[in-house]
Amino acid sequence: MADITGSRIGGRIEDMLVVQAGLDATGQQAGAQATAAAARVERLQREVAEVTARLKADFGELASELREAAARATANLHGADWDGRSRGAADAANLAFANEIDRVLRAAHEGADGLHDALTAQVMSFFDDMSGSFAQVLRSIEENYHSLAGATRAYAARLADDDAVAIRFG
User: Fold this and answer.
1) Is 11 left (phi over 0), alpha (psi -120 to 50) or beta?
2) Which domain holds residue 92?
3) pTM (global) more than 0.90
C-alpha cells in the first residue's frame, strides 16, 4: 500500500484521515458514555444507601436521647417519696412512653427502609433502561462510526494506490 500522507486526488487524503480519526473518537465517546452511565447509577445506589443509613442513625440517636430522658424521669420518680397509687401510675406512664419511643423508632426505620427500597427500585429501573435500550443505541452508534471511519480509511488508501498506479503508467 502506498504512503497516503500528503497525497491529493480531488481532495486531501490527510483531510480524510483527520475525518476518520474524528469518527473513531466519536464512536469511542459513545461507548464511553454507556460505561459512565452505569458508573453513575452505581454511585447513586451507594448514595441512597448512605442517606438511608444516616436517617436511621439520626432516628436512633433521637430515640436514645428520649430513652435517657425517660430513664432520668424514672430515677427521679423512684427517688421521690410516694404514697398510694400515684407512683404506680407514674411508672405505668413512663413505661408507656418508653414503649411509644420503640414503636415510633420501628416505624421510622420501616419508613427509611421503604424509602430505600423505592429509590433503589427507581435507580435499578433507570439502570435497566440505560444498560438495555440506551446502551444498545450507543453501541450501535459506536459501531457505525468505527465502520464509517474504516471505510474512510480504506477509501483514502485506495485513492492513494490508484494515484500511485496512474503515476507509474501515466
Assistant:
1) left
2) 13-169
3) no
